[in-house]
Write a sequence for this structure.
């Protein structure tokens, strides 16, 4: 019975997170293409369409396409499968840890789907900041991945205290 509960939780996280990520990227491609930067909330939030062939902050975008394919599709795809298998099969993870690992897998999966669909590139469109202090342009899959990492770190800190 526990395996069914674990798999149901992971499926719920995947469907919700990957679904929202893919819908938001579709909307960004449709409504932001060729429109420049849109600024909201006193320039705290910017919407700007970007296609990222690299990893975080375009790291690796100048690598040959075959290397990017191996690293960002095959490598990340294998990591996503490993994360989701760990979340589903490990009896040692707490429920918060399991959710965190599933969020990390969902974030990775959302970007792998983009890379497969769009010739190795990921659709990015969000930018946050205050004044000149800004994030890079990212998407909901990136935010989901970071949320999973943050939850794991918080859980680890809580357990040490």
């Amino acid at each position: 019975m526990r395996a069914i509960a674990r798999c149901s939780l992971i499926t719920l996280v995947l469907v919700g997170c990957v679904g929202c990520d893919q819908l938001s990227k579709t909307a960004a491609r449709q409504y932001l293409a060729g429109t420049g930067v849109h600024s909201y909330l006193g320039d705290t939030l910017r919407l700007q369409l970007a296609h990222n062939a690299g990893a975080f902050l375009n790291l690796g975008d100048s690598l040959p396409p075959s290397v990017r394919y191996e690293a960002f599709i095959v490598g990340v795809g294998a990591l996503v499968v490993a994360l989701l298998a760990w979340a589903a099969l490990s009896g040692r993870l707490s429920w918060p840890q399991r959710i965190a690992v599933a969020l990390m897998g969902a974030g990775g999966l959302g970007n792998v789907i983009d890379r497969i669909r769009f010739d190795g590139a990921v659709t990015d469109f969000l930018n946050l900041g205050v004044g000149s202090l800004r994030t890079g342009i990212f998407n909901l899959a990136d935010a989901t991945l970071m949320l999973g990492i943050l939850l794991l770190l918080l859980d680890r800190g809580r357990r040490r205290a």
Notes: The CA atoms of residues 82 and 152 lie 16 Å apart. Residues 2-32 form the longest helix (31 residues).
